Structures are given as structure tokens and as C-alpha cells.
Amino acid sequence: MKSIFESNFEGFKEYPTLENNLETEAAVVGGGAAGLLCAYWLNSEGYKVTVFEAGRIAAGTTAKSTATLTALQSIMYGELIKKNKHIGDYFEAQRDALEIYKQIIDKHNIECDFETKPAYLYASDMKGQKELLKEYKAMKNFTDSVEYTKS
Fold first, then answer.
1. What are the sequence ranges of the domains in the chain?
2. Is the full-model pTM beyond 0.85?
């Protein structure tokens, strides 16, 4: 099944397979939303950037995302924080990326219906509700922008 974004997105042109060595100052692997943002930033800092993508630009995970950008992907921070106490830095980087996208859109007057909306996780049963509460407590350790509502 195709997402709405995939169905209405004609994509970018295909680029030829790299046949020879290439000299670049920065290589970005992956031509999705995150990779293209990295390439944009590096280029704006004056680096010669090359994006490497196995398929088509923005046609993988980015296309299946229905063009949603979020720092709250799923219940994952509770588990990640057990493995790395600096996981809050990852969340902050995700949140900063959202702001950078907005700045780029504003700077270049890109017509794309960009909107900032709250993100929500929900549970349909008690087990899921307990997992969400654990996630909430983990995220409260590194951000004050999360809220928990029990209903």
C-alpha cells in the first residue's frame, strides 16, 4: 500500500550509478529528509557535498512517512536511555532539525503547507498505557516539553 505522499509525489529524477572515483569534501549517505538536510547544511557552510543514495532521492522512508517530520517517532526513548545516558542529545537534535526545516522553508519561500503540530503517542490497552508511562518518565529526564495525560 502506498502512502498519500507516495501516491501524489512524482519524485526526483534518477541519477546514474557512480562509475568512477569522485572527489568531495563531505559525503552524505542517504537521500531522505535527514540526509538532504545534512547536505544542505554542509553546503551552506561551504563544503563540496556529494549525496549517495542507493535508490531514488526521497523515495524510501521519507516517502512512506507521508511527509511527517517528528522528534517523537515511537516508544523508544525509555529503552535507548538505558543504553546511553546522553540520549537526550538525540531528542534535541531531532527537535533542532524540525526548526531548521522551518527556517529553510521560510528563507527560500518554499510552498509546501508546512505546519507545526503537537505529536502524540497513545495506547489502546493497559499494557500499552504502562509502556507509555515508562516512556514519559524517561523523556521527562531530558526534556520538559513532554506531557502525560491519562484518559
1. 1-68, 73-144
2. no
